[in-house]
Amino acid sequence: MASADAVVIGGGIAGTAVALELARRDVSVLLCEQGRTPGEGATTWSGGLLRAHHTAHCVTALAARSLPVFQHWGDAVGGECGYHRTGFVMIVARRLLGHLRHNAAAVEAAGVATEMVSTASMAQRYPALSFAGQQDADLVAAYEPDGGYVDPAACARSLLAAAVARGVRLSEGVAVTGIVIERDRVAGVQTTLGRICTPTVVLAAGAWSARLLGSAGLQLPVEPRRIGIARAPVDAGSGPLPAGIDDTLGTYFKAAGRQPGGGVYFGVTADPQVTLDALPAPITQDEVQAAAKRISIRIPAVRAAAVCGARAGFDGYTPDRQPIIGAADVPGLYISTGFSGGGVKIAPAVASLLAAEIAGEEPDPLLAPYRPQRFVTGNLIESEYRYVHS
Q: What is the pTM (predicted TM-score) of this model?
């Protein structure tokens, strides 16, 4: 039987990042991915927005710690991550101005530049944005000049290349079917090609996590959901676009490439139902038309443009829409899953802190809110400064 000091399940950005960090600590790692890396889950379908602005300030801390890694990816990891510094804007209803100020202050305190801005200044800086009929009396915004987006699949590929260069073994096309428990602790994993012996398993399997946790006798609320994104061309004369979240519309957006006219990606509210053992159902015409109508309020150029692409994928969601990170109640089992559509921007910090913990270092307080046990104790991650949709 094959063996390793640690088996990482999942070849998305969460799994490849923690595999690299473990290898940096001289841990023998075997990475299992049921498809081809960077996986078939959320990583390849993610919008990849980079922002520190969150209503849960524990996420702000991890995003702030991760941002320099993306900014200096070549030195920190090697290869390319596709970091585009377009700026990031968070738009909310004016009645939530107090919440916006509080959350922006948390971003500033975490060391990431941010400023309160008017919608008029945003429209001037980014002419492709429109606030017609919704001026400063209705809307308020916070802006991060260093925000933007990355290419999540490129991140995972370069993380994997760096991990393999440090000795991580990769098993592509090998699905883990169960976590083996003997004498009340992890003893290995069962795969489609046989058993692998290991005292340590890191579960980073996204939407597939709940099923594998069940094989270890654990019931954690990680619900698989279908997620979607679409792309529309935009006239080059419209000018540059920031990355952004518009809470009043319940959507996000980013430029599709560096050059004006490359188009815009925007979120699609998709039917969340999934069948894990089948490809995700393609985004439907009704789903994409509803999303295009919504985003065209903020980016009018989308209104006249034909949507030219859409894609769907899977991710794992938790009740508080925050990840599960840390040691499970079964010794030897560690979890890094349930990122609920927001894992890319915090992946470097999560991987570094979790790998240090697995290697025997003192657990970092930054990960304390994310422990699996919070669903038993009722200490879910909540914020007094929430917005409508985020």
A: 0.95
The stretch 188-199 carries a mean pLDDT of 96
Contact predicate 337/251, CB 8 Å: no
Contact of 118 with 274, CB cutoff 8 Å: no
Query: What six digits make up the tokens of 272?
Result: 């969340």
pLDDT of residue 40: 67
Give yes or no for a contact between 334 and 327, defined as CB atoms under 8 angstroms apart: yes
pLDDT in tens, 128-140: 999 987 656 789 9
Residue 225 per-residue DSSP state: E
80, two tokens: 């390319």
Return the CATH number of 84-147+224-317, one of 3.90.1580.10, 3.30.9.10, 3.20.20.100, 3.30.2020.30: 3.30.9.10
Distances (CA, A) of 8 to 79, 239, 374: 22, 43, 23
Report the distance separating Cα 8 and Cα 112, nearest Å.
31
CATH 2.70.98.10 fits 2-45+152-222+319-377, yes or no: no
Q: Domain ranges for the chain, please list them.
A: 2-45+152-222+319-377, 84-147+224-317
Q: Which residue has the tokens 């000091």?
A: 5
Could you tell me which of 311, 80, 320 has the C-alpha nearest to residue 221? 320
Phi, then psi, of 69 in degrees rounded to 5: -65, -45
End-to-end CA distance of the chain: 46
Per-residue pLDDT tens over the stretch 138-160: 899 999 999 999 999 999 999 99
User: pLDDT digit string (tens) for 74-95?
Assistant: 999 999 999 999 999 999 999 9
Collect all residues with Cβ–Cβ distance below 8 Å to 24 and sequence separation of at least 6.
166, 355
Q: Which residues lie below 8 Å from residue 225, measured CB to CB, with a gap of 6+?
A: 207, 272, 274, 314, 315, 316, 317
- pLDDT, tens digit (0-9, with 9 covering 90-100), for 104-123: 999 999 999 999 999 999 99
